[in-house]
Amino acid sequence: MNFSSISSFLGSSIVTLNPVKTSELTAFHAELHKKIASYVDQSSSYLLENWVPHVTLANRVPKEKMGSALPSLFCSLSICLRNPDGIKTDKDRK
């Protein structure tokens, strides 16, 4: 899985790592929802038409810290965006 960005949902206190939304990832998500459809609220943010693939990195970040949270997490993870090798450490970059 390749990740393309670190962001937050507009107006939220959540910082996310966002994978590239490929046809394979979308198909996996659609198949998963077929299997759990009877357990999911039909207005769910996780329904295929609403779904934004992400990994939550931080939750409940105070508003006054959101501006520094994004760059801090970005630097901590040492992510190479749009790099097919995905996440690398500083050692890998040398």
Automatic annotation (TrEMBL):
Q: Name one Pfam family in it.
A: 2_5_RNA_ligase2
User: Which InterPro entries does the entry mention?
Assistant: Cyclic_Pdiesterase (IPR009097)
Q: What is this protein called?
A: 2'-5' RNA ligase family protein
Specify the taxonomic lineage.
Bacteria, Bacillati, Bacillota, Bacilli, Lactobacillales
